Automatic annotation (TrEMBL):
Record flagged with keyword Transcription regulation: yes
Molecular function terms from GO: DNA binding; DNA-binding transcription factor activity
Pfam families assigned: HTH_1 (PF00126), LysR_substrate (PF03466)
Keyword annotations of the record: DNA-binding, Transcription, Transcription regulation
Official protein name in the record: LysR family transcriptional regulator
Annotated HTH lysR-type domain residues: 1-58
């Protein structure tokens, strides 16, 4: 069934006159008559009683008219939904993140995005860098956020932010009152460390810092979760090194101290598939750039 024929039927039913309906539709009356005839042939019912001077809807025509209005309402709703999808205003986004991202700019990005696009469902997934790379490649994730990710050929990377590394000490530590701490002063401490299998680059950069300070870190525990790392430090099980973003943890029993020596800058990278054409993803990444350019951790 063609929507055009359905539309013609509705106008004739509203005008109850083929001449006026043809003028309203801006088509020739014979063409309109053929359109209604074709529709009746397809339905195998008469929609109009033409036995009198004034045409009238048959009972079948009356019932069909009610459904025709519903059909056109559904078509219009479908058109609006399609346009919203095309404009990135409706749909579903799966966002992956590591701990550092959630302690930096990501919550602000998601909050602002949902204010601007309330009809888009955003689902966050805490995943390691490697898990995000796999999920992006398999189209189970739309956008990923990770610190110092390993580069993969089929993904596009964009640096949003950078920050320095800090050491995390128990508040009772002898160096806790210092404004800054030299890594060499922590050479004999037990360390809570980030697992290499989850992000080799991040792990190796931190290890290299210690080596440059003249020691190999004595690793006693490993965890990828900043809040767990902070809790282990607070319990006196060791010291740790984290990105400065994690100072927003505000965990009792620990202090964050900048390093005396220069450290590497941690990059927060946004990852997505190359040649991605989704308007949803385009709108989110554009907002991520906007928010990140104005981001102040203490604001």
């Amino acid at each position: 069934m063609e929507l055009r024929n359905l539309r013609h039927f509705m106008v004739v039913a509203e005008e109850m006159n083929f001449t006026r309906a043809a003028e309203r539709l801006q088509i020739a009356q014979p063409a309109l008559t053929r359109s209604i005839h074709n529709l009746e042939e397809e339905l195998q019912v008469l929609l109009f009683d033409r036995s009198k001077r004034q045409i009238a809807l048959t009972p079948a025509g009356q019932g069909f008219l009610k459904q025709a209005y519903l059909i056109f309402a559904d078509v219009e709703a479908a058109i609006q939904i399609a346009r919203q999808f095309d404009q990135g205003k409706l749909g579903y986004l799966a966002i992956g993140f590591t701990g550092a991202a959630i302690y930096s700019v990501l919550p602000q990005i998601v909050h602002t995005y949902q204010e601007r696009f309330p009809e888009v469902e955003v689902v966050l997934h805490e995943l390691s860098m490697r898990e995000q790379v796999t999920a992006l490649s398999e189209h189970r994730l739309d956008i990923g956020f990770a610190v110092a990710p390993s580069l993969v050929e089929n993904l596009a990377y964009e640096r949003l932010l950078e920050c320095s590394m800090v050491v995390v000490l128990p508040e009772t530590h002898p160096l806790a009152s210092r404004a800054r701490v030299a890594l060499a002063e922590l050479a004999k401490e037990p360390w809570i460390w980030f697992p290499r299998k989850l992000n080799p680059h991040y792990h190796d950069q931190n290890t290299r810092l210690c080596q440059q300070a003249g020691f190999e870190p004595r690793i006693v525990q490993e965890t990828a979760h900043p809040h767990i790392m902070a809790s282990l430090v607070a319990a006196g099980l060791g010291v740790a090194m984290m990105s400065a973003w994690t100072q927003s943890l505000k965990r009792e029993g620990i202090v964050f101290k900048p390093l005396l020596e220069p450290s590497w800058s941690v990059d927060l990278q946004m990852m997505r598939r190359k040649q991605e054409t989704s308007p949803l993803i385009a709108a989110f990444t554009s907002l991520a750039r906007e928010i990140s350019s104005k981001f102040h951790p203490d604001a």
